[in-house]
Amino acid sequence: MQTQPSALAQALDSSVARSLDMDDGLRVIGFTKSFSKDQQIFCEGSSTDFIYRIVSGAVRSVRLLADGRRQVADFYLPGDVFGVELDVERLATAEAISETVVVVARRSNLAVDPDQSHRLWRHASRELRRCRDHVLTLGRRSASERLANFLIGLAKRLERGDAFDLPMTRQDIADYLGLTIETVSRTMTQLQGQGLIELDGCRHIRLRRPAALADLCE
Amino acid sequence: MQTQPSALAQALDSSVARSLDMDDGLRVIGFTKSFSKDQQIFCEGSSTDFIYRIVSGAVRSVRLLADGRRQVADFYLPGDVFGVELDVERLATAEAISETVVVVARRSNLAVDPDQSHRLWRHASRELRRCRDHVLTLGRRSASERLANFLIGLAKRLERGDAFDLPMTRQDIADYLGLTIETVSRTMTQLQGQGLIELDGCRHIRLRRPAALADLCE
DNA sequence: CGTCGAGTTGATTGTTTTCAACTTTGGTGG
DNA sequence: CCACCAAAGTTGAAAACAATCAACTCGACG
Known about the structure:
Helix content of chain A is 37%, strand content 28%.
């Protein structure tokens, strides 16, 4: 199964097609493509025919209200697949948070294999689960619960143990958690004051008492 | 394709198996089953092998935090299919809001037909879309924006024009919108005061200026 | 007609936002 | 290498919004 040369595929700034065996069994032949900080990967309303897997860097999925209020729907980290949707049009915009490399594949090339198709749906299903957890957080948790929950989830996904670098800015975190940047900042300080986390610069974090943090999330 | 008699199918309190041609093309042979107000249809952690379609009544999907805070993930209305998930375990509990009749079908009976399977996923996809809209609402909208958005969406789904009965209590609305019952009540009164809606009793609503309501949602 | 659950309204509190000033960080060029 | 600058982050004070606590009203049903 070869990727057809396409306008978009040819426009990709990567040169070599690479075979990629995804963790979850998704076998994809795609192209690597690099994005610089804040560069758009796809935008709301665009076609959903391409799916992506992050090689390095990080991505945010963003939606805007008419007056500019911003909601970050999700973050994607190295190894994550994103952009899998059955709808024809994208509902959100995807942007690179930092210098980011992704593998791009044409969904229609995968979907012909029912087995691959099933794996694609597994991703959509994971997405739905994350989205539902997000609803619970935004609907019913306080600022400190939101942040604690966020940090624990991030630590787990980054697989770096209890010390890691935040890939995103305070503004991104705020827009993900439905808070303001000031509230995120204050809550970070507060968690640090309680000895639950340790900040070294504003990006590097260590979870000092992960269990106590987890208690905050209920 | 016949439904196998199963422990659960036999336990259903309905007698006749009925063939149902769903609006969206889902062809299902299932059983009808009735639920009384507040009765559980399925609970968190249970198997996802059955899917449901509402014949009459209404259903809420609910998640709870450890301390009892409640989040309504979604409402389902007559004609809606719910309970379609790829995960093995259910993440939320489904409860009848009022006297409710549903058709129950075994997902594994449908999924063998790739065409039916595709239609099932269409539902999951719709669910994801609704969930993402919910995130945007809970993350970034004020109480009056949340309520206006909710009422407009409900009016559209109920297909009764601008006047309809709310199938759910204030508490359910509050738990769906991430507010308290008092805030929902006050916001209703406020929207009425602005001439945007008209309340006749606490259940019957008429949207007097749908366009102005829609403006509130941005 | 009385009771109970649901809903509304009022007063007050508390959390988060807003506005503003200040500090830190990271990158760039002298 | 250091100084400077802009962007990002923090902190403080005040305001706004929604939550909480409490009393009251409405409506359905016996």
